[in-house]
Specification:
Layout (H helix, E strand, L loop, with lengths): L6 H15 L2 H6 L8 H11 L3 E5 L7 H14 L2 E6 L2 H15 L4 E4 L4 E2 L5 E5 H10 L7 E6 L11 H10 L5 E6 L5 H12 L2 E5 L7 E7 L2 E4 L14 H12 L15 H13 L5 H10 L5 E4 L3 H13 L7 H14 L5 H6 L2 H9 L2 E4 L5 H12 L5 E4 L13 E4 L3 E3 L4 E3 L2 H8 L11 E6 L6 H9 L13 H20 L3 H30 L7 H35 L5 E5 L6 E7 L6 E2 L2 E2 L10 E4 L4 E3 L13 E2 L11 H15 L18 H12 L8 H28 L2 H15 L3 E2 L2 E2 L1 H6 L7 H9 L8 H12 L17 H22 L18 H8 L4 H8 L3 H21 L7 H12 L2 H4 L5
Parallel strand pairs: 1-7, 1-8, 2-5, 2-6, 3-5, 6-7, 9-17, 11-13, 11-14, 12-13, 14-17
Antiparallel strand pairs: 3-4, 9-10, 15-16, 18-19, 18-24, 19-22, 20-21, 22-23, 25-26
Helix pairs in contact: 3-4, 6-7, 17-18, 19-25, 20-24, 21-23, 28-29, 28-30, 28-32, 28-33, 30-31, 32-33
């Protein structure tokens, strides 16, 4: 091709090649044995040009390549790079990847409870670790050139999302930020915010999946494609077979005992129903794996939104005799498992269900969920990547960044428990889960399989599969720790300004823009209306105000009159007794009636249920037309009185037509000739009202009252008033959304001032202690230190108390009080709850609401006994049995207690206090056995 170019063009092409070869990107590309995608090249070029980047791309598309290029740039420029991840497991995985590529001497790891080569030029860490370093002004930040924030869409997480925004806002300006996100629908909005707080940021969005994803529904023995064969039409049509199947199933009876099952049911109907049943059912878990294996669609991850469901699925596959590994594979599995678990004592292995677990692994089957021991989960991940585990049953936590791509992903149901109720999964969650299907460089295509469930709507499923709407919503809220750290570094005024740069406020302000435009349009309309109602005789706005005041006063008096009439009518109804003959003044049953039950209180009268007096008495009557009806207050707009009295026979049965007929006939005979007195309405309150008289006089005396065009002006005045009212409502909405974060910060600062943590811009000694305590109950922990609640406790007792600051039960259970250590620990826990009650009341006084994500929740004592036992050197079997908790949960809560104990040891007073020393001892007592077993983090 170069022969066809002119000498000038050949020269230009050679010059471009020389320039490209001189870039860092060229040397970086040589490190990989595959070519980079266009979005990866564009992102890396933007990064090398000095811009920050936001990369939004599907799961498995390779966006981490951009993060690794930031590492490459930092090393080539002699700078540092911090690579942050949301979870420790992902940090461990990334650390291993980077250490293999660049050498363990150049890569470190910091995950809160582990520190490996932390002074290295490249450090992988959880996002919270970086946040804490920024607030502490750590020397490790010197020379920092790049920060990679993997899974940055985590800032939507309502519990931890604020940390991501804190880091983005507080990073030094000299640091280049690389943000890696799942595909989100508002990437441009997030990019605009990054532009304002971080400077020039390139936004690169890729919707392209490197491995195409095909969607299926598995019903009975058949796998249906969700969509019809691809056509030229942009919109994919749902497979008509699925639509037809949903209609057929909807027409089938839910219960077996339908009317058609009688002798008259035709044989053809029975045959058709048998055929339908033979085609439509939800296949069992072992059956699904066998089917996928037959279709060559393994390895597969089946998402089951329940830990117990995952374990049950493994057992079902074992009972079904499934074997997905050959003999060589089984031997290799046992070698890897025994090597990775060699440090765990035999007695603990038995408690952890090791032998059942390894039996399933040898067959190529495993569960993966947060209740498992971290070591066990890591082994499952490793075996899956090596192709030695081919069927994994997992909860949705596996979808959060762990590198475990599969050929297929199976979803059992499209409903999951969200902590409060069973809710449909969102399009974003569906995309995140199915994004695991299709291994780049291995699979030609990925497959998402949804199991048929009764009542499934194929159109709704197609909507989930076809929608890529996953908006990024800020969950940022100020905390007590954040407030003291900000004031300590920047002072109150500057801190307030910094908080107003948060993504939360950015989104709120953007929402305000639309409302502000409407207010602007309304104000233009108001000016036009004002001009149209201008009167040459005087101030028509003033005149319209008098007319409006008169109308409002008349309406108020009319409402008062209506209330008084209803009250009088209700009082009259309360005086009625069984046997009274009345005249119902209005309604469907107007006319003569006999009171059977005055309806004054709940109970039974004459076989009819009474009613509570929520809306006043509701008498039960027999009308002259033989109907027995329960009347309501609206049937009596005016007071009613008894016209006559009648005896109701004891034998009267309101359900008997004959009984009703006889009594109605007696009613007509007794009182049919009586005519009720017409109710005379009382004198209107408006006649004697002085304010109305004054307003009428002022209206008549006003110059505009004599204008020939008065009513025309008045119509414009009414429009002006309505629009002005609407505009004020919009302005109140704007006020509610503007500076919301800063106003919350102001309330927090006032509360901290009340507790002597802050004195203006000065952070007190108590405040400096609070600045070292991170967590949901930071203020409670600080108050406990201040009031010396934990003084004199043993390390095990201190561990029990600190557990209440981190532990939260997965499901509320108020029926059973948790078991607590006796003695000093129990007293200290009680004191912690008392202090929390005082703080809770104080937060209410300062309008700090937990519903808004701010404030201190009640400490949960449910893990105190388990923490105390483990720190007291009790065996794993005994502790897990007493705690009634899976090993994975136990380890996770222990590590969180260790993390907070570390903070307390740093924050505790050094003089005349044993807390700091005992906190360090408690850490050592907890970090043993299964709590200490982990690969790196």
């Amino acid at each position: 091709m170069t022969e066809d170019l002119s000498p000038a063009e050949r020269y230009e092409a050679a010059r471009k090649r020389a320039v490209e070869q001189a870039t860092a990107l060229a040397s970086f590309r040589e490190m990989y044995d595959f070519g980079l995608d266009p979005f990866q090249i564009e992102s890396c070029q933007a990064l090398e040009s000095g811009k920050g980047v936001l990369v939004a791309a599907p799961t498995g598309s390779g966006k981490t390549i951009v993060g690794e290029f930031a590492v490459h740039l930092a090393l080539s420029q002699g700078k540092k790079c911090f690579y942050t991840t949301p979870i420790k497991a992902l940090s461990n995985q990334k650390y291993a990847d980077l250490a293999r590529r660049y050498g363990s001497d150049k890569v470190g790891l910091l995950t809160g409870d582990n520190s490996v080569n932390s002074d290295a030029p490249v450090v992988v860490m959880t996002t919270e670790v970086l946040r804490n370093m920024l607030y502490a002004g750590s020397r490790s930040l010197l020379g920092l050139g790049y920060v990679v924030m993997d899974e940055v869409h985590y800032l939507s997480d309502r519990f931890r999302g604020a940390v991501w925004e804190e880091v983005i806002i507080h990073l030094p300006e000299s640091v280049t930020l690389v943000s890696l996100s799942a595909t989100v629908s508002n990437a441009e909005e997030f990019g605009d915010w990054l532009d304002t707080v971080r400077g020039d940021t390139a936004v690169i969005v890729s919707e392209h999946r490197p491995v195409p994803l095909f969607q299926h529904v598995l019903a009975g023995r058949r796998m249906y494609d969700l969509f019809e064969e691809e056509s030229s039409a942009k919109k994919r049509e749902v497979n008509p077979d699925l639509t037809r199947m949903a209609r057929m199933e909807a027409s089938r009876p839910v219960h077996g005992r339908d009317r058609r099952r009688g002798r008259n049911m035709r044989e053809a109907d029975r045959e058709r129903e048998r055929r339908q049943r033979s085609r439509i059912w939800t296949p069992g878990r072992a059956e699904v794996i066998e089917r996928l294996d037959a279709e060559d669609l393994l390895p597969a991850i089946t998402f089951i939104f329940s830990r117990a469901g995952c374990e049950s699925a493994v057992q079902q596959c074992l009972y079904a005799g499934l074997r997905l590994n050959d003999e060589a594979g089984r031997r290799r599995v046992r070698e890897i498992v025994e090597e990775r678990t060699a440090a765990i004592p035999d007695e603990d292995l038995h408690v952890l269900g090791y032998f059942e677990w390894i039996e399933a692994l040898e067959r190529g089957i495993a569960a993966h969920h947060a209740g498992m021991l971290p070591t066990f989960k890591e082994v499952v991940e490793e075996l899956f990547l090596h192709g030695l585990v081919k069927a994994v049953f997992a909860t949705e936590t596996l979808a959060l960044g762990i590198n475990m791509p599969a050929r297929s992903v199976v979803l059992e149901k499209l409903v999951k428990w969200n902590g409060e109720q069973h809710a449909d999964i969102t399009p974003g969650e569906y995309t995140q889960l199915t994004g695991r299907a299709g291994r780049r460089g291995i699979d030609v295509e990925g497959h998402a399989v949804v199991l048929w469930q009764r009542g499934m709507n194929p159109e709704a499923l197609a909507g989930l599969a076809g929608t890529r709407t996953y908006p990024l919503r800020s969950s940022f809220r100020p905390s007590y720790n954040m407030a003291v750290n900000l004031v300590q570094q920047f002072g109150r005024h500057r801190s307030r300004e910094l908080l107003e740069t948060s993504f939360a406020q950015f989104q709120a302000d953007r929402a305000v823009v639309g409302i502000s435009r409407q207010v602007q349009r309304n104000e233009e309309g108001l000016a036009g209306y004002k001009a149209s109602m201008t009167c040459h005789l005087g101030d028509f706005e003033e005149y319209a105000g008098l007319r409006r005041d008169l109308k409002d006063r008349e309406n108020d008096l009319a409402k008062q009159g209506a209330v008084q009439r209803r009250a009088a009518a209700a009082t009259a109804l309360e005086k009625l007794k069984p046997g009274d003959v009345i005249h119902v003044p209005t309604g469907k049953f107007a006319g003569l009636a006999l009171v059977l039950d005055p309806g004054l209180s709940a109970g039974r009268s004459n076989g009819h249920r009474g009613f509570d007096q929520v809306d006043g008495p509701r008498p039960l009557v027999l009308t002259a037309e033989r109907q027995v009806k329960r009347l309501a207050a609206m049937d009596f707009p005016v007071p009613v009185e008894a016209l006559e009295r009648m005896r109701i026979p004891k034998s009267f049965n309101p359900r008997s037509p004959q009984s009703r007929r006889d009594l109605a006939s007696a009613l007509r005979t007794k009182a049919g000739h009586v005519r009720p007195e017409k109710h005379r309405r009382g004198r209107s309150a408006a006649v004697d009202d002085r304010e109305i008289a004054r307003l009428r006089a002022a209206i008549k005396a006003h110059p505009c009252h004599g204008c020939d065009e008065r009513e025309d002006h008045a119509r414009w005045g009414e429009r002006y008033t309505r629009l002005q009212r609407d505009t004020k409502q919009l302005e109140r909405r704007i006020e509610g959304r503007t500076n919301t974060i800063a106003r919350t910060f102001d309330r927090i600062v006032k509360l901290l001032g009340e507790l002597d943590y802050l004195r203006g811009d000065e952070v007190t000694e108590h405040g400096k202690r609070l600045a070292r305590l991170y967590g949901e109950l930071d203020l409670l922990a600080s108050e406990c230190l201040r009031e010396r609640v934990w003084e004199g406790l043993s390390p095990a007792e201190l561990a029990a108390c600190v557990s209440a600051l981190v532990y939260e039960a997965r499901a509320a259970d108020d029926a059973i009080a948790p078991k607590l250590p006796s003695g000093q620990a129990k007293a200290a826990l009680g004191e912690m709850v008392r202090i929390w009650g005082r703080l809770d009341a104080l937060e209410e006084d300062f309008r700090i609401s937990q519903a808004e994500g701010v404030g201190q929740r009640e400490p949960d004592l449910g893990f105190a006994w388990a923490a105390y036992m483990w720190a007291s050197d009790k065996g794993l079997d005994e502790v897990l049995r007493e705690a009634e908790m899976p090993a994975g949960d136990f380890v996770r809560w222990c590590k969180q207690v260790i993390d907070v104990l570390g903070q307390i040891s740093a924050a505790a007073p050094t003089e005349d206090s044993t807390v700091g020393k005992n906190a360090r001892k408690a850490v050592d007592a907890l970090r043993r056995g299964v709590v200490a077993y982990s690969s790196v983090g």
